[in-house]
Each structure stands twice: as structure tokens, then as C-alpha cells.
Amino acid sequence: MVMTQEMMDVIADSRAYVATATADGVPNVVPIGNIKPLDNKTVIIADSYMIKSRANLEANPKVAFVVQDAAKHPFQFKGSVKIYKSGEYYDQVVQWVKETAPLAPKPKAAIVIDIEEIYSVKVGDAGKKID
Ligand SMILES: Cc1cc2nc3c(=O)[nH]c(=O)nc-3n(C[C@H](O)[C@H](O)[C@H](O)COP(=O)(O)O)c2cc1C
User: Fold this and answer.
1) Which of 5, 45, 55, 103 makes the best surface tag, with the fewest CB within 10 Å?
2) pLDDT at res. 124
3) What is the CA(66)–ligand 1 centre distance, in A?
């Protein structure tokens, strides 16, 4: 699944609402500011504060998110994550948070999302698969 430039720009520039679920399907949703695309198929999140979200992702790697201004950018992204507590992706989020939020705690992990499905949530064609 391939994100367009518009999709990548809005993910980089805005907050997202990120949904996870327990292994038996109890949902959880949180706002996330440190989220950005790595390329047109991959998104990275700095896990600085996740508790339930992180426990959910350890048990169930599936994630879904929408961006804050879904009225203007009506996209819904779904994918599977890998969690990195060291290495290149982890070092990247540590550096990123240091630059964007110097007072924030050191991230606990990098959450890398492999984008698998993209849908429209636009009123009128809601639920339509884009890619
Ligand atoms: C505006 C805003 C931005 C946030 N950005 C992040 C973030 O980039 N990374 C993060 O780990 N938590 C972030 N949080 C915290 C999470 O939304 C949430 O509080 C945290 O994941 C704990 O909730 P949970 O136990 O349901 O996961 C942010 C919260 C707010 C209000």
C-alpha cells in the first residue's frame, strides 16, 4: 500500500489518533504527536508515554489511525507494527524527540508501522478502500 505525498505531509505535520486493541479485541485510542512517515509505506511513532497502547501492541500488532484534521484529510490507515527498543529506528526517535521536545523523557521505543490498507472516511464515500 502506497501513501500519497498529501498523506505523508499531513502525517508529518499533524497529530494522529492511534487505535490499538488487546488480543481479545478491547479497543484503545490515544492522540500521538510524534508520528511521521519514513517512506511511502512506513510510519514511525516515538513511544514516550504509551502504557495500554504499548501492552496492546506487544500482544496484537494491528493498529489503525486517522489524522487530526480528518475533515480536510479524510484518510484511515491500517497496518502492523514492529517495536524497536534499540538500533537504528530507536536511535532515530531518540534524536527526533530531543529536537522536537527537549524537555520530554527519552522515548521507550520506536513503533514502526507497515501500512497495509488505506481507506477514505470522507462523508459520501466513507469506507471506500483507497489502496
Ligand atoms: C497532544 C498529545 C500528544 C501526544 N503525543 C504522544 C507521542 O508522540 N508519543 C507518546 O508515546 N505519547 C503521546 N501522548 C500520550 C498518549 O496520548 C497517551 O497518554 C499514552 O499513550 C498513554 O495512554 P495509553 O495507556 O492508553 O497508551 C500524547 C498525548 C497528547 C495529549
Assistant:
1) 103
2) 84
3) 15
Q: Ligand 1: distance of its center to the CA of 61 in Å?
A: 18
Q: What's the fold here for domain 5-120?
A: Pnp Oxidase; Chain A (2.30.110)
Distances 128 to 39, 95, 131 between C-alpha atoms, Å: 23, 37, 9
Q: State which ligand 1 atom lies nearest to the alpha carbon of 34.
A: 8
**Domain spans in the chain, listed from the N-terminal domain onward:** 5-120
- Give the three-state DSSP class for 124: coil
Write the pLDDT tens digit of every residue in 39-98. 999 999 999 999 999 999 999 999 999 999 999 999 999 999 999 999 999 999 999 999
What's the rounded Cα separation, in Å, for the pair 79 and 120?
15
For 69, residues 6+ apart whose C-beta sits below 8 A from its C-beta are 10, 14
